[in-house]
């Protein structure tokens, strides 16, 4: 995401939630906010996390190693899914997310300061 000009923050605390990755894409007056929950293996917790981030983002993704391809196909909308290869150099969008239009809420919560990474 950094390679395409987004500002990227990891382990961000927003409204009492810890978000694994927040990326902000400059898009004129209204930047787009991407939230990505990253796991090494599928967990039931991931689905809950994805749904709880929908109200704070324009796009929400689950990211898992590509070997979990069948699970990545099953990620429920409105979230999308990303597969990452073993060496971490290739990233594949497996399922496109739905545009949510809620990124302004995250930006409003953090105000004029950039999102703060966790300790």
Question: How would you describe the overall organization of this protein?
Answer:
With 119 residues, this protein is α/β, with parallel strands linked by helices. The chain has three helices and six strands, in the order βββαβαββα. A six-stranded mixed beta sheet has the order 1-2-3-4-5-6.
- Count of helical segments? 3
Strand content: 25-35%
| Morphology | globular
Strand order of the largest sheet: 1-2-3-4-5-6
Could you spell the SSE succession in H and E letters?
EEEHEHEEH
What integer value in Å does the Rg equal? 14 Å
Shape-level CATH architecture: 3-Layer(aba) Sandwich
Reported by name, the CATH topology is: Trna Endonuclease, Chain: A, domain 1
Q: What summary fits the major beta sheet?
A: 6 strands, mixed
Offer a quick outline of the entry.
Helix content is about 20%, strand content about 35%. The chain is of the alpha/beta class.
